[in-house]
Amino acid sequence: MTARRLPSGGSTIDRSRPISFTFDGAEVPAFEGDTIASALLANDVVGGFRSPILGRPRGLFSAGTEEPNAFVEISEPWFEPIVAATMVDVVDGMAVRSRPGVGRLRASPESRPLEHRHAHVELLVVGSGHDGFYPARDAAGRGERVMLVDQHRTIQRGAGGDFVAEGVTYLTRTTALGLYDEGYATVLERAAELDRLWHVRAKRVILATGAFERSIAFADNDRPGVMLAYASWLYHVEHGVVPGSRAVLFTARGGAYGAASNLAANGVEIPAIVDVGMTDPDADLIDDAEVLRGWVVSGTGGDHRLEAVHLEGPDGERRTLECDVLLVSGGWDPNLALWRAIGGGVRFDDDVHAFVPTEGPPWLSVVGAAAGEVTNDAPFWFVPAEDTSRHFVDFQRDQTVADIADALGTGLRSIEHVKRATYIGTAIDQGRTSGVLTAAIVNAMLGEHAGAQGPSNARPPSVPVAYATLAGRFRGDLFDPIRTTPLHAWHVEHGAVFEDVGQWKRPRFFPRAGESMDRAVERECLTVRNAVGAMDASTLGKIDVVGPDAPAFLDSMYTNRMSNLAVGSMRYGLMLGLDGLVLDDGVAMRLAEDRYLVTTTTGNAAIVLDRFEEWLQTEWPELRVYCTSVTEQWAVVAINGPLARDVVDAVGTDVDLSREAFPLMTFRDGQAVGVPARIARVSFSGELAYELHVAGWHGPLVWDAVMAAGQAFGIEPYGTEAMHVLRAEKGYVIVGQDTDGSVTPADLGMDWIVNPSKGDFIGKRSLRRADLVRPDRKQLVGLLPQDADAVLPEGAQLVLDEAAEIPMALAGHVTSSYRSPALGRAFALAMLEGGHAMHGRTVFAPLRDRVLACTVTSPVSYDADGARRDG
Amino acid sequence: MAHTALAGRSADLARLGSVEFAFPTQVDVRVDRGSVFGFPEHPNTWARAGDREVLWLGPDEWLVVAGSEEALDVVADLEASLAGMHRSVVDVSANRAVIELAGAGRLELLSSACPIDLDPRSWTEGRCAQTLFGAAQVLLQERQADTRLFVRPSFANYVVDLLLAGVER
Fold it and tell me: What element of type H or E holds A421?
């Protein structure tokens, strides 16, 4: 007769519902309501676990969240890499394997169904025992919204009675993972059908988290069969299970006698109670049980489980007793992990011989056993011995009293240093059974008072939680929003290959059947250069800027003057940081005397608006300017190519498209395809170009009309890759590609856009800093590889002397590089030290397998005199 | 024919007990003293003004919502009534898609990815708020029988997919 299920009893199990699961491949019968741990114990599986580092046999040590040994992987009916066997209810057909303290993830991401939920309450109570239940009930009675969570399967106080009060959300099998500032808490609910991560915002939080039973360190105290005393009581009361047939109690606390007498009353033989202190028993002495006062357990014997305990008396006498269970109780320690992780203080109380809470955040309180309402006798932490190398303190880290002594021997004094030297408390049980013990041993070894140093700090999450649970539904396509333009469906239908630009999906190119990316991009480029192409430019950021001071405001935000722009005209602008370095670029359209619409790069739309608001609200509140984001009000179709005018004309518009009436860098409000449209003559390809700006919901209509009307002119859609090639041929930079936050307008050869005479603008002062006017700064140049077919890798470094010794002096780097169909050769843009004065010289790009010689040129390699822009 | 970001999702929206309010009129107003004009002054509330609804977006910002194709009228009315004041009146009708969520479970569903207090005891008719649903900025408006969710069209399908994930668990 060993560990077994009794014929009756067990408050949480349903004996009419037998189920089974597998543990390390062997079938284990259970009842509905069993935890994995209780079912194992009922079947005399006391051990079966291994310690992670030393590989020592380990067994069930506790019945709760403090379990340091019995960790399992669940593979059916859901996957969970590692969890304490004491914390999971058995499900029929469940497949469980023991895991030595370290979980393994699966390649496939399946897990239990899970969701997140946000909740706002006046009161969150953690722990539903007597001390937690009544404050919850009372607050609900006052009409407050209350959430009461408990890690057990039932509410602890009033179960089965009339405990449900209006306004209380009861969550069982639920663990508070962490508390954060101002009453924000994360709470993990392991509901029957799914895991639910609650984000709770509570005005007040009460911790009724109880206490953990304290272990005692002695030789071979980790042998399977050694168990916390109260755990044996729980297994009996909740599951009708006793942990063995012959049990010895080793205690420093009279209050633990009851655990032994409970077992005795249920047929377990109790040969002895080893009472290290002179304690006052809480239970009648058991007939036949010898009480050995002042004795200690000096060691244990047995193979893979406990078979005997070795005892030592106050005068050095020695005895050995056969037994298969050793109950241990060093006392009670308030469970203050959540309290301390949010900054609550503790002190050692000499009356209760435990760390108790002191001051904490005003919204947080601790009650009951967690607050120090525990009864301990004089503590006893570890059994002195010459060899303490098997006196285990942290079972999961395989750390012993000797390891602590070693750490102190190297000169460490702080408990936090000892923690980091030994890793005690850093395993997934967070040292719930070892934290206070370690502090006490450190204090004792340093000759300090028991409370001189408290246990090392705990941090959320309080129990292991899978990343999948934290991710919730935000995985796969929902991991991050996928933003699409009004024309997205058309792009998908027409086989676009997309690229991610921030959160946006933009068509990169539109391959025909069997066409490679290079071929498709070449075709798209030539179509724009020789006929006409259409591109979805809807992602550009757009901001409406209005007010009497809008012209002055934009003069301050951009390097060039926007105040003298004529209504109906538009102007390219550069925006600098306070450091004088290029931040963004865009085009400002003057809609009215007091109104502009400015565009930003796709990725900077929100950043630029925030910047406008910041300056208006914090620096220049006197300026009468309002900004409104209109990015998605407008769909934008860019039509580029020598035949662009013909296409817009064929689409149908009331705007006079003639060259004289509608010059470059102007816009007209009118209609296109019968809907209101703003038509702008702005080109990012160097070709004749029009942009049609229409309400987002008219985008598909207008795009379809452009593609239909353009058919006669050979129109084709083109993507961002062709757009990049075309603009690079013209030497137009892309902020964020050719610039990297270290580049001035002058570095880009764009001094022309900096107007020093117009008054102040952001970054102006910095442009005069000595470092920003050095002639040897990296400057934008064009590169023509002397092997015309060699496309330089973007990011390649440039050197002046290919024969120099490594490490070579680096002179620059490639920022953009393509094959140009118009030039019939490879070309690149680069930032090169002193590059503006180096046109015609040769530089070298040392690559892994060869060195590419390149001729430095102007960044403008196509249509340098701008003859093509008017068609 | 005009085409919203959620055209083609009506079956999905129906499963959510929702419909799209397509082609609404939306006009963003910024002015220092909106209360003078009967705009709601209390943060995160909305009010009716005739057949228009005015949502508080900030201390100096409101969104006026009306039926389809009223943008020109709304802009003209606002420009007239705010004439002489420093103001911004911008037609943003196409700048947000609008989903009307109905059904008793709608607030619980929104609470799966929205951090603000949507408990029916505090989130009542007349409330509105700019907040997040998942990683998308949204504007919520609690009406008599439904909750309107305003979202940038580029995020609209993400929001619908996230809502569907919430009912399909």
Answer: helix A415-422
Length of chain A, please?
Answer: 871
Per-residue pLDDT of A297-344, as tens digits, reads: 999 999 889 999 999 999 999 999 999 999 999 999 999 999 999 999
Contact state of A504 with B152 under an 8 Å Cβ cutoff: no
In angstroms, rounded to a whole number, what is the distance separating the alpha carbons of residues A168 and A290?
Answer: 49
Rounded CA gap, A596 and A806, in Å? 53
Test A624 with B91 for CB contact under 8 angstroms: no
Q: Where are the domains of chain B?
A: 6-23+95-169, 24-92
Cα–Cα distance, A520 to A514 (Å, whole number): 10
| pLDDT tens, position by position, A660-704 | 999 999 999 999 999 999 999 999 999 999 999 999 999 999 999
User: Which of B141, B149, B146 lies closest to B40 in space, CA to CA?
Assistant: B141
Q: What are the tokens at B38?
A: 């009967």
Q: List the structure tokens of A290.
A: 């010898």
Nearest to A695 among B88, B93, B162 (CB): B93
* ipTM summary value: 0.96
Q: In the CATH hierarchy, which fold is given to the domain comprising B24-92?
A: Alpha-Beta Plaits (3.30.70)
Model pLDDT, residue A159 = 46
Distance (Å) from the alpha carbon of B50 to chain A's nearest alpha carbon? 25
The percent helix, strand, coil of chain B (3-state, each to 5) is 25, 35, 40
Residue B108 has a CB neighbour count (10 Å cut-off) of 14
Domains, chain A, with CATH or none: 4-98 (3.10.20.440), 113-213+332-376+462-479 (3.50.50.60), 214-331 (3.50.50.60), 385-449 (1.10.10.1100), 488-538+634-726 (3.30.1360.120), 541-629 (3.30.70.1400)
Per CB-CB distance under 8 Å, the chain B contacts of A180 are none
Q: Is the peptide bond before A461 cis (omega within 30 degrees of 0)?
A: yes
- Give A261→chain B minimum CA distance, Å: 48
For the four alpha carbons of A131, A135, A138 and A144, in that order, the dihedral sign comes to: negative
Which residue intervals of A531-631 are DSSP H helices?
A: 550-557, 605-614
Nearest CA of chain A to the CA of B145: how many Å? 22
Question: Can B6-23+95-169 and B24-92 be said to share one CATH topology?
Answer: no
The answer to whether A319 touches A313, Cβ cutoff 8 Å, is yes
Is residue A90 within 8 A of residue A21, CB to CB? The reply is: yes
Q: Which residues contact A756 (CB under 8 A, 6 or more apart)?
A: A764
Nearest residue to A602 via CA among A695, A700, A720:
A720
Residue B160 · residue B13 · CB < 8 Å: yes
Q: Are B32 and B65 in contact (CB under 8 A)?
A: no
Considering the domain B6-23+95-169 in this protein, what is its CATH number? 3.30.1360.120
Nearest C-alpha of chain B: how many angstroms from A607? 15
- Cβ pair A119:B95 closer than 8 A: no
> Is residue B169 less than 8 Å (CB to CB) from chain A?
yes
* Contact between chains at A697 and B30 (C-beta distance less than 8 A): no
Cβ distance B2 to A695 less than 8 Å, yes or no, reads yes
Q: Which residues pair with A348 in a beta bridge?
A: A355
What pLDDT, on the 0 to 100 scale, is given for residue A162? 46
Q: Which two tokens stand for residue A84?
A: 């304490």
Residue A429: both structure tokens together: 């049980």
What residues have CB less than 8 Å from A251, skipping those under 6 apart?
A229, A257, A273, A274, A275, A276, A279, A327, A328, A329, A330
Contacts of A623 in chain B (CB under 8 A): none
Which of A477, A504, A628, A636 to mutate against chain B (most B CBs within 10 Å)?
A: A628
Q: Among A756, A745, A761, which Cα is nearest to A585's?
A: A745
Q: What is the dihedral of CA A319, A320, A325, A329, to 10 degrees?
A: 30
For CA atoms B67, B68, B73, B79, the dihedral sign is: positive
